[in-house]
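User: Run a structure prediction on this.
Assistant: Running it now.
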Amino acid sequence: MVIGCILGGGDATRFGGIDKLALQIEGSSICQRLLAALAPVVDEVVVATGAAGRARLDSVPSHVRIVHDAAPGLGPLAGLAAAFSQSSATAVVLVGGDMPFITTPVLRRLLAAYRAGHDGAAFSVNGRLEPLLAVYGRALLPHVSDLLARGSRRMSDVLEKSMGNVCVLTENDLASVDEHFRCLTNLNSAHDVARIRST
Protein backbone atom coordinates (compact mmCIF):
# COMPACT_ATOMS: atom_id res chain seq x y z
CA MET A 1 0.00 0.00 0.00
CA VAL A 2 1.31 3.41 -0.99
CA ILE A 3 -0.12 6.51 0.63
CA GLY A 4 0.30 10.16 -0.18
CA CYS A 5 1.03 12.49 2.71
CA ILE A 6 0.43 16.22 2.46
CA LEU A 7 2.35 18.16 5.08
CA GLY A 8 -0.26 20.45 6.59
CA GLY A 9 2.18 22.15 8.93
CA GLY A 10 1.91 23.26 12.52
CA ASP A 11 0.82 26.70 13.62
CA ALA A 12 1.41 28.48 10.28
CA THR A 13 3.19 31.39 11.95
CA ARG A 14 4.55 32.57 8.62
CA PHE A 15 0.98 33.00 7.38
CA GLY A 16 -0.45 34.56 10.52
CA GLY A 17 -2.16 31.32 11.52
CA ILE A 18 -3.97 30.96 8.17
CA ASP A 19 -4.45 27.43 6.81
CA LYS A 20 -2.00 27.50 3.90
CA LEU A 21 -3.75 24.54 2.26
CA ALA A 22 -6.77 26.80 1.78
CA LEU A 23 -4.83 29.38 -0.23
CA GLN A 24 -6.23 29.80 -3.73
CA ILE A 25 -3.74 29.37 -6.57
CA GLU A 26 -4.96 29.56 -10.18
CA GLY A 27 -8.56 28.90 -9.18
CA SER A 28 -8.09 26.01 -6.75
CA SER A 29 -6.92 25.65 -3.18
CA ILE A 30 -3.48 24.17 -2.61
CA CYS A 31 -5.21 21.25 -0.91
CA GLN A 32 -7.40 20.57 -3.95
CA ARG A 33 -4.40 20.77 -6.26
CA LEU A 34 -2.31 18.33 -4.23
CA LEU A 35 -5.18 15.90 -3.76
CA ALA A 36 -5.75 15.88 -7.54
CA ALA A 37 -2.06 15.25 -8.21
CA LEU A 38 -1.78 12.41 -5.68
CA ALA A 39 -5.08 10.59 -6.22
CA PRO A 40 -4.12 8.73 -9.43
CA VAL A 41 -0.91 7.26 -7.98
CA VAL A 42 -1.63 6.34 -4.33
CA ASP A 43 -4.10 4.18 -2.42
CA GLU A 44 -4.94 6.85 0.14
CA VAL A 45 -4.08 10.48 0.87
CA VAL A 46 -3.58 11.75 4.42
CA VAL A 47 -2.73 15.17 5.77
CA ALA A 48 -0.14 15.36 8.53
CA THR A 49 -0.29 18.18 11.03
CA GLY A 50 0.88 19.16 14.49
CA ALA A 51 -1.73 18.67 17.22
CA ALA A 52 -2.40 22.40 17.41
CA GLY A 53 -3.08 22.55 13.71
CA ARG A 54 -6.18 20.37 13.47
CA ALA A 55 -8.76 23.07 14.14
CA ARG A 56 -7.55 25.24 11.27
CA LEU A 57 -7.59 22.60 8.53
CA ASP A 58 -11.01 23.50 7.18
CA SER A 59 -9.59 23.14 3.66
CA VAL A 60 -9.26 19.36 4.03
CA PRO A 61 -12.30 17.40 2.78
CA SER A 62 -14.01 15.22 5.37
CA HIS A 63 -13.06 12.00 3.56
CA VAL A 64 -9.33 12.75 3.89
CA ARG A 65 -7.77 11.41 7.06
CA ILE A 66 -5.70 13.71 9.25
CA VAL A 67 -2.71 12.16 11.03
CA HIS A 68 -1.14 13.90 14.00
CA ASP A 69 2.55 14.34 14.66
CA ALA A 70 3.69 12.20 17.57
CA ALA A 71 6.45 14.73 18.21
CA PRO A 72 4.95 18.22 17.66
CA GLY A 73 7.48 20.89 16.82
CA LEU A 74 9.79 18.65 14.79
CA GLY A 75 8.24 19.61 11.49
CA PRO A 76 8.04 17.43 8.35
CA LEU A 77 10.07 14.63 9.89
CA ALA A 78 7.37 14.10 12.51
CA GLY A 79 4.72 14.25 9.79
CA LEU A 80 6.45 11.47 7.86
CA ALA A 81 6.69 9.35 11.01
CA ALA A 82 2.98 9.92 11.67
CA ALA A 83 2.06 8.81 8.16
CA PHE A 84 3.87 5.52 8.70
CA SER A 85 2.80 4.90 12.29
CA GLN A 86 -0.87 5.58 11.57
CA SER A 87 -1.10 3.42 8.45
CA SER A 88 0.06 0.10 7.04
CA ALA A 89 1.78 1.82 4.12
CA THR A 90 4.84 0.26 2.56
CA ALA A 91 5.75 3.67 1.14
CA VAL A 92 4.80 7.30 1.61
CA VAL A 93 4.75 9.86 -1.18
CA LEU A 94 5.54 13.01 0.77
CA VAL A 95 4.60 16.44 -0.55
CA GLY A 96 4.93 19.87 1.00
CA GLY A 97 1.66 21.63 1.72
CA ASP A 98 3.12 24.84 0.33
CA MET A 99 4.02 23.38 -3.09
CA PRO A 100 0.97 24.02 -5.31
CA PHE A 101 2.48 23.01 -8.66
CA ILE A 102 3.27 19.36 -7.98
CA THR A 103 1.77 17.23 -10.75
CA THR A 104 0.87 13.59 -11.27
CA PRO A 105 3.62 13.00 -13.90
CA VAL A 106 6.25 14.21 -11.41
CA LEU A 107 4.92 11.82 -8.78
CA ARG A 108 4.78 8.95 -11.27
CA ARG A 109 8.46 9.51 -12.06
CA LEU A 110 9.39 9.31 -8.39
CA LEU A 111 7.32 6.18 -7.84
CA ALA A 112 8.81 4.47 -10.89
CA ALA A 113 12.27 5.05 -9.45
CA TYR A 114 11.23 3.75 -6.03
CA ARG A 115 9.62 0.65 -7.52
CA ALA A 116 12.81 -0.18 -9.40
CA GLY A 117 14.11 -1.72 -6.17
CA HIS A 118 15.02 1.25 -3.99
CA ASP A 119 14.10 2.25 -0.44
CA GLY A 120 13.24 5.78 -1.53
CA ALA A 121 13.47 8.27 -4.36
CA ALA A 122 14.07 12.00 -4.56
CA PHE A 123 15.16 14.64 -7.04
CA SER A 124 18.45 16.46 -6.72
CA VAL A 125 18.54 20.01 -8.11
CA ASN A 126 21.58 22.26 -7.98
CA GLY A 127 23.31 19.66 -5.86
CA ARG A 128 20.55 19.59 -3.23
CA LEU A 129 18.06 16.85 -2.50
CA GLU A 130 14.37 17.76 -2.48
CA PRO A 131 13.07 15.89 0.59
CA LEU A 132 9.59 17.46 0.57
CA LEU A 133 8.85 15.96 -2.84
CA ALA A 134 10.02 12.39 -2.42
CA VAL A 135 9.06 8.77 -1.86
CA TYR A 136 10.03 7.12 1.42
CA GLY A 137 9.84 3.34 1.79
CA ARG A 138 9.13 1.82 5.19
CA ALA A 139 12.73 0.57 5.25
CA LEU A 140 13.73 4.18 5.95
CA LEU A 141 11.54 4.42 9.06
CA PRO A 142 14.37 3.43 11.48
CA HIS A 143 16.36 6.42 10.22
CA VAL A 144 13.34 8.66 10.77
CA SER A 145 12.85 7.35 14.30
CA ASP A 146 16.54 7.78 15.11
CA LEU A 147 16.56 11.39 13.94
CA LEU A 148 13.40 12.20 15.89
CA ALA A 149 14.88 10.64 19.03
CA ARG A 150 17.83 12.99 18.66
CA GLY A 151 15.57 15.99 18.15
CA SER A 152 16.64 16.48 14.55
CA ARG A 153 14.50 18.43 12.07
CA ARG A 154 16.59 17.81 8.92
CA MET A 155 14.51 15.88 6.40
CA SER A 156 17.40 15.39 3.98
CA ASP A 157 19.25 13.37 6.63
CA VAL A 158 16.78 10.52 6.12
CA LEU A 159 17.75 10.29 2.47
CA GLU A 160 21.45 10.99 2.96
CA LYS A 161 21.85 8.30 5.62
CA SER A 162 20.57 5.75 3.14
CA MET A 163 22.12 7.03 -0.07
CA GLY A 164 23.05 3.54 -1.22
CA ASN A 165 19.39 2.51 -1.27
CA VAL A 166 17.78 5.79 -2.33
CA CYS A 167 17.40 6.59 -6.01
CA VAL A 168 18.56 10.15 -6.65
CA LEU A 169 16.92 11.51 -9.78
CA THR A 170 18.75 14.14 -11.79
CA GLU A 171 17.69 17.52 -13.09
CA ASN A 172 17.26 15.90 -16.50
CA ASP A 173 14.89 13.37 -14.97
CA LEU A 174 12.81 16.18 -13.51
CA ALA A 175 12.91 18.22 -16.70
CA SER A 176 11.41 15.28 -18.58
CA VAL A 177 8.18 15.69 -16.58
CA ASP A 178 8.39 19.35 -15.51
CA GLU A 179 10.49 21.37 -17.94
CA HIS A 180 10.70 24.51 -15.80
CA PHE A 181 10.88 22.76 -12.38
CA ARG A 182 7.64 24.48 -11.41
CA CYS A 183 6.80 21.68 -9.00
CA LEU A 184 9.57 22.88 -6.69
CA THR A 185 7.93 26.27 -6.14
CA ASN A 186 7.10 26.64 -2.47
CA LEU A 187 5.17 29.39 -0.76
CA ASN A 188 6.96 30.39 2.44
CA SER A 189 5.29 33.74 2.99
CA ALA A 190 2.41 35.98 2.00
CA HIS A 191 4.87 37.74 -0.31
CA ASP A 192 5.47 34.47 -2.18
CA VAL A 193 1.72 33.99 -2.61
CA ALA A 194 1.29 37.52 -3.97
CA ARG A 195 4.18 37.01 -6.39
CA ILE A 196 2.72 33.76 -7.76
CA ARG A 197 -0.72 35.30 -8.15
CA SER A 198 0.68 38.25 -10.07
CA THR A 199 2.45 36.13 -12.71
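The beta strands are 2-9, 24-25, 28-29, 44-49, 65-68, 91-96, 120-125, 128-137, 166-169.
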